[in-house]
């Protein structure tokens, strides 16, 4: 890929309480990577390959706006995002995401909200504080979510599901709404609540 573009955002005043930052993709994204780096001088660094998005920052909201879906250029876009753990992060993706890998184990995660579908997604999540929600409004295919050992989780799927696994619970195929939760979910103060609005295939939720 070509046309590399790099952007950064300064860190907030460390004397104040931990702020919440938002990563927003208003029109979806393909080939997305998110990682954490405590050694950065900034709270955010983005490297973009292929057709360039419009990147803006205001009041802790970093908007990475790719043009609406174009089959001639979509597969050639890639965003490599690095965030600093001094900020608690909330990720909003509208119009879906494909090929997303995120290692968020060393950051405070405020939540994930995807409006649209997801495919080929691998998320490594941190230990949550309270109930942290992961939402996908559309369908999901090849979604893997890994969480720390001892962390409770629930998954709810609005449509049918095939090849669904939550730890040692699983289904080959099942129709209608589906809900699975770890045995410790209802009593846990810190947990993940995962919801998929549409149908789902090859979904794995597991402890590391």
Can you describe what's shown?
- This protein has 2 domains: 1-115, no CATH class; 128-208, no CATH class.
- The protein is 0% helix and 59% strand.
- The protein contains no helices and 19 strands.
- The protein has strands at 5-10, 20-25, 29-36, 42-49, 54-58, 61-65, 78-83, 88-94, 97-103, 109-115, 118-124, 131-136, 140-147, 152-157, 161-166, 169-174, 178-181, 191-196, 200-207.
- The strands form 2 sheets. Strands 1-4-7-3-9-11-13-19-15-16 form a 10-stranded mixed beta sheet, with no helix packed on it. It has a 9-stranded mixed beta sheet with strand order 5-6-2-8-10-12-18-14-17, with no helix packed on it.
- β5 and β6 form a beta hairpin.
- It is globular and about 45 Å long.
What's the number of structural domains?
A: 2
Helix content: under 10%
Order of strands across the main sheet = 1-4-7-3-9-11-13-19-15-16
Uncertain residue ranges: 12-16
Amino-to-carboxy terminus distance: 33 Å
How many distinct beta strands? Answer: 19
User: Pairing-aware structural class of the strands and helices?
Assistant: mainly beta
**Percent of residues in beta strands?**
over 45%
The profile of the biggest β sheet is: 10 strands, mixed
Q: What's the quaternary structure here?
A: single chain
The number of helical segments is 0
**Mean pLDDT over the full residue set:** 90
